[in-house]
Specification:
The protein is mostly beta strands. It is built from 3 helices and 13 strands. The relative contact order is 0.21.
Length: 230
């Protein structure tokens, strides 16, 4: 995923998040759980037989998916990593659970990424379908490189990696709108318009994009915190 695409992803729902009071973050670096993630290997195979010869070609691809516990999707952060916490500490915390990130833009001028992100420098770090946004200025802290936002949802195709991330209430990608409303009774549903699809505002700092599957609205991705474009 390109840095520009990541920035656009975080900017789509920026208006859904409200600003918090500025100030230096005092949250200590989180500590990763000692419980290892569960992995499931899935294998896909294909074969091709030529009609003009007797040769047959077979290919097999194995993809390892990671099921995660201890990284709850929340309005105040991701697992024990709270918004406003030190950027390096959060990257180390998530990396201790999921392993090395699959992409890292490093600290960059926001305009170099093609997005109107807050702060003078920003950074996007991701583990496949889980993306974290860091900045030096947001409603959570100012003048400190800190954790400001995350998105969780499949960028390409239905297979989630890592999979199994849910809120403390037990809802996640694939949960129905009814399940979301039961988990967050004070939340607000928006049916969308010709530009944006349906969404669900779970709480201040937690936003859900919806899509229709088999005539039922379900959660397609989650946005926590304050992203770009605000």
């Amino acid at each position: 995923m390109s840095a520009c695409a990541i920035a656009v992803l975080f900017g789509v729902a920026a208006g859904a998040c409200s600003d918090s009071e500025d100030g230096a973050a005092t949250t200590p670096p989180p500590t990763a759980s000692t419980s290892p993630p569960t992995t499931i290997a899935t294998t896909t195979s294909s074969s091709t037989t030529s009609t003009t010869s007797t040769s047959t070609t077979s290919t097999s691809t194995t993809t390892t998916l990671v099921a995660v516990e201890g990284l709850d999707l929340a309005a105040d952060g991701l697992g024990d990593a709270l918004f406003g916490a030190d950027a390096d500490g959060v990257v180390d915390y998530v990396g201790a659970i999921l392993g090395p990130p699959t992409f890292d833009t490093d600290w960059s001028d926001p305009f170099s990424l093609g997005a109107a992100c807050p702060g003078t420098e920003v950074r996007f770090v991701g583990w496949n379908d889980l993306s974290l946004f860091f900045t030096d200025d947001s409603g959570y802290a100012s003048g400190l490189r800190h954790f400001a936002s995350y998105t969780y949802g499949p960028a390409f195709g239905p297979t989630m990696n890592p999979y199994g991330l849910v809120t403390a209430e037990g809802v996640g990608v694939g949960s129905s709108l009814d399940d979301l409303q039961a988990a967050f009774p004070d939340g607000a549903f928006n049916p969308g318009d010709e530009l944006f699809g349906p969404t669900f505002f779970a709480a201040d700092g937690l936003f859900v994009f919806l899509e229709e599957r088999d005539s039922v609205l379900v959660a397609a991705s989650f946005l926590g915190g304050q992203g770009c474009g605000e």
